[in-house]
Amino acid sequence: MVDVTQETFGASMTQRQPMVWDAWGTADAAAPLSEQVRTLLAQVFGISGESALRRTETEVALVPSALTDLDHRWLTEAVGAEHVSTDDIDRLRHAGGKSTPDLLRRRDDAPQNAPDVIIRPADHTQVLAVLAYASANGIAVVPFGGGTSVVGGVDPVRGQFATVLALDLSRLTSVSDVDPVSGTATLGAGLTGPQAEQLLGEHGLSLGHFPQSFEFATIGGFAATRSSGQASAGYGRFDDMVTRVVVATPQGTLDLGRAPASAAGPDLRELFVGSEGALGVITSVTVRVHQVPETTAYEAWSFPDFQTGADALRAVVQAGAAPTVLRLSDEAETGLNLARSADVGGAPVQGCLAITTFEGSAAHVAARSAEAFELLSAAGGTALGAAPAQQWEHGRFGAPYLRDALLDVGVLCETLETATSWRNLANLKVKVTGALMDSLNSQGTPGVVMCHISHTYPTGASLYFTVVAKQLADPITQWRAAKSAASDAIVVAGGTITHHHAVGADHRAWMGAEVGDLGLRVLAAVKRELDPAGILNPGKLLP
Ligand SMILES: Cc1cc2nc3c(=O)[nH]c(=O)nc-3n(C[C@H](O)[C@H](O)[C@H](O)COP(=O)(O)OP(=O)(O)OC[C@H]3O[C@@H](n4cnc5c(N)ncnc54)[C@H](O)[C@@H]3O)c2cc1C
């Protein structure tokens, strides 16, 4: 077993890049729209195609910090003056997540809501101390990982409290107990996806968790939201990878998960996977890791229609042919080349595009890809070769930049997701698409609704929708109406209110439909026990 501490890696670890305050990612990676796409958008949505001017960080007014001198002094002593910040730019960068309403809200002229102070604790002990102080002194605490939430999970909601602090976990970057024999490693909650892969890579290991937000989201955030990455068909969701969590709460520490499996009652570890900062702060996560794959095989497929493609994916998953990536775009998404963001607006593509990749040893990859090839061919697929799948992989982190460019020219663009059984998949897709279309039509802004199967299981799959329409003068209200209609439709059609984006503030109203009144009361009772003052992430997860 190799035990590696944070200090060992301090110098070599990839530095975390702060994201632009009002958009996705970093400014140098922004992707303005081509002339061709602008023209297309102007034709379809009747917009001018001109980009709106955006404000710089220093031009934005913030609601003043409500932090008292007394609290400031205590926090400074607890974590060190350089790790307590009331700087306006820092506050602005912690003012919310990265959903489309978040980004639109930042364009508002009114003073922006922001946390009163940012605290960057060094370790679990400091997190515990801050939580105990906040609980005793009535300060709301918003655990902040990468800030990539798309459900309002890091909104600086103060609830009944005068002060709200953002607990930025970016200094929790330790790696320890790297154990290639058991295939596990313990990762600090603040490590981003690339940092974790880099540090594990130094041991020839990989986590294999690649959500689209991979570059900026963190290990703690993945666990707290039950994240699901693009290679989930091969490596599972993040919750499948968690073997142990260490959690700080206002009432003390929980260290959960001591064996690969256990019959010692209900699995309390599961309480914190998906707890969204409302029950405690995850300070480290022990995860299942695997050897860096020896080889990757790629194959893209075309299916005549979505149902044929969905049936084909189901055949592959249920046979256990185990691709690493397995996804299927519907006709609308395929037609717009959305699966390959670099080609958006290019020549339309017919049918439904599916992507498969296979990672592992050469022999294992060969066996699984051959089996999947037979199954997908037999189910009506036409093999397109490796290139489209490699292009998808190459551009897979690019789509969020496209959203920013669309918002700039007055086009609303947002996504939502759900999951259901294979039997109910087509019904759910029709109902959600219909609800979105009806809402946008009734607002006078007919939209384009695209969908793909993003994650597959033997018993069902997730559906990921992308919606594009002309923005109204109040695009947040416009989107909230469409999203609300879609959420109602999801519940009625038997889907889950969220497959991997989590509940946050945005899905709270549908949690009762998801777990029932008794389920809500059980969660509230657990929260009361761990967080009696109710300081942890008010207004999130629980109604
Ligand atoms: C462009 C884009 C693409 C995305 N793609 C995907 C995707 O492919 N798959 C997917 O699953 N999600 C995706 N997301 C959603 C988001 O990235 C995930 O929910 C991610 O897991 C959040 O991680 P984070 O570190 O950014 O957490 P944050 O956004 O900082 O926090 C999310 C929630 O977790 C809580 N939290 C954070 N850290 C901790 C901690 N250590 N302890 C306790 N609570 C904590 C916060 O309080 C908040 O409630 C995407 C988001 C965007 C903007």
TrEMBL record:
The record marks 327 as: Important for enzyme activity. InterPro entries: Alkyl-DHAP_Synthase, FAD-bd_oxidored_4_C, FAD-bd_PCMH, FAD-bd_PCMH-like_sf, FAD-bd_PCMH_sub1, FAD-bd_PCMH_sub2, FAD-linked_Oxase-like_C, Oxid_FAD_bind_N. One of its GO terms (biological process) is lipid biosynthetic process. The active site is at residue 464. Residues 111-292 form the FAD-binding PCMH-type domain. The keyword RNA-binding does not apply. Its cofactor is FAD. FAD binds at residues 143-149, 225-228, 276-282. Keywords: FAD, Flavoprotein, Oxidoreductase. The keyword Oxidoreductase applies. One of its GO terms (molecular function) is oxidoreductase activity. It comes from the Bacteria. Substrate binds at residue 403. Residues 90-109 are annotated as: Disordered. Belongs to the FAD-binding oxidoreductase/transferase type 4 family. This is Flavoprotein.
